[in-house]
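Holo model, magnesium ion. Inputs:
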Amino acid sequence: MLTLSVDMDEVITDTAKKLRDWYTNQFGIVFSNEDLHGKDLKHAVKQEHFSKFHEYLNAPGFFGDLEIMANAREVLEELNNKYDLYIVSAALEFPNSLKDKYDWIAQHLPFITWRQICLCGNKSIVQTDIMIDDRTRNFSHFQGRKILYTQHHNIFEENYERVSNWQEIEEKLL
Ligand SMILES: [Mg+2]
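Output:
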């Protein structure tokens, strides 16, 4: 079986949606999709809101109730039968996310065992045959097949094999 690592935030979970909704509720600011092209959310929020934004991300529970991307569960379940599958998340940036992420996976992806979960500080030591991620920095040491999951912040990155949704992952890998 080929080994496959799949990122969590903004690939399996819609982290940006929760943050954008919160930002609108807190500060009355709505980002259009165009506002966020090529930009990280943390660089799009106003400077005076940044500490609240960071605090919210690190609050216990933030990562516990994220929405799952459409079709992700079904496709991951099939991928799990065909590949040696790992969920890999650089979660230590937000230490309070660790238990949330473990619980989220147990709830939404019950076919993933704890042996398939890798919560780490960075992904430079990860070498699987295939990696799906929305951050090109996670590909910098990676030797395998890189699949970039299109998100607002990576829209201008060139020369990557891309997918925009889980149906496209299904078409490529199943
Ligand atoms: Mg991500």
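The chain has a mean pLDDT of 97. The chain is about 30% helix and 15% strand.
Archived with the compound record.
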